[in-house]
Amino acid sequence: MKRRSMILISLILVLVGSSIPVQAAGRSTEIQQVNQQLKKQHFTGSVLIIRDGRTILQHSYGYANFMKLQPNTTASDYQLASTQKVLTAVLFMQLVQAGKVQLNAPLSRYYPQIAHSKQITLRQMLDMNSGLYSMTDAQTMLSDSQLIKFAAQHVKVKAIGQHNYEPVNYTLLTGIIERVTQQSYQTLVKQRIIRPLKLQHTGFMLADYQQEATTTVAYKAVNSFLPYLVHDHESKIALNRKLGTGNMYSTVTDLFRLEQAIQQNKLLKPASVATLFNATDGSYRGGLYNYRDFVVSHGVESSYEAGLAMSRDGYSGVILLSNRKTGVSLSQQARKLYQRLRL
């Protein structure tokens, strides 16, 4: 009976729409059209659009936790998934900048047991051109060192030099970061990124997420008329094994500040930023897809999805974070909005 009631409430709320007001600095027809577009496609999550340092749309849609009738807000937390990889790339580039690691060093310097590792460079791993891939995931809770050892033992190689998006590249890079610094990845992210940037609602899913007051629940997109019918639970084991690749969360505001800080040389020197993101044709470099005037990122884990597009100067951008993945790619949508709004 309770389930029937929740389904009925869900249907009614979807039909009548959200009562949360649009928090936009501008009321232009174009921005209103964007807002209506997101509603029409049943977007569930938060959006932040900034042009030249000025917020032109900041709004949330749907529910963070439908069972508690808790709506998403602009302070809601969402899993970042693969958008986290740029943080790993930044930590790695900080070591390059300090002369502790060389971009063109062979993988064999750190993992000689991996086949063909003498032919693979660390730069290729950052850009997903290493040929490394893995078909096996750890099925138990492991420590960082155990996860890295597991990855090195189960990695395979094919087509070195060709782009092939494989998270194992960043797992192994995380292993190098921890070995060189003698600190955990989590400690380094907090010390070198979160605290210096004063990010108040960014952290790790297993360690920090439940301490937040604005957490969200992920929902499977089974039916647009019953959007909150099925939860999408990600196990602790699954989260644990995404070391350096997708086990963090943030808000739209924190994520914008983070990406802005990277583009504005607050975490790396200008030369290091230019080297890390040295492409203009949309190629993957250092955790981002790089175009001439802007960069794009995308992440999907369980039913969380993140998409962003940001100008190279860090003053303009689109952030989309969702706790209900639909058939629309948020990275493509962020890029289209960025270009449509001429940010």
Radius of gyration, in angstroms, nearest whole number:
20 Å
CATH topology title of the largest domain: Beta-lactamase
Let me know the average pLDDT: 92
User: What coarse outline follows from CA principal-axis ratios?
Assistant: globular
Strand residues, percent: 15-25%
Which runs of at least 5 residues are low in confidence (pLDDT < 50)?
7-26
CATH level-two architecture of the largest domain: 3-Layer(aba) Sandwich
End-to-end Cα distance, whole Å, is 49 Å
The tally of domains stands at 2
Going by CATH, the homologous superfamily of the largest domain would be DD-peptidase/beta-lactamase superfamily
The main sheet orders its strands as 2-1-14-13-12-11-10
Order of helices and strands: HHEEEEEHHEHEHHEHEHHEEEEEH
Counting DSSP H or I runs of 4 or more residues, the number of helices is: 11
The description of the largest β-sheet is:
7 strands, antiparallel
How much helix is in the residues? Answer: 25-40%
Enzyme class: hydrolase
Protein name: Serine hydrolase domain-containing protein
GO molecular function: hydrolase activity
Keywords: Hydrolase, Membrane, Signal
Description:
The chain is of the alpha+beta class and 343 residues long. It has two domains: 237 residues, Beta-lactamase, CATH 3.40.710; 97 residues, Up-down Bundle (Methane Monooxygenase Hydroxylase, Chain G, domain 1). Helices cover 34% and strands 18% of the residues. It contains eleven helices and 14 strands. It has a seven-stranded antiparallel β-sheet, sandwiched between helices. A three-stranded antiparallel β-sheet has the order 5-9-8. 45% of the residues are buried. About 6% of the residues have low confidence. Its EC number is 3.-.-.-. Keywords: Hydrolase, Membrane, Signal. This is Serine hydrolase domain-containing protein. InterPro entries: AmpC-like, Beta-lactam-related, Beta-lactam/transpept-like. It is an enzyme of class 3 (hydrolase).
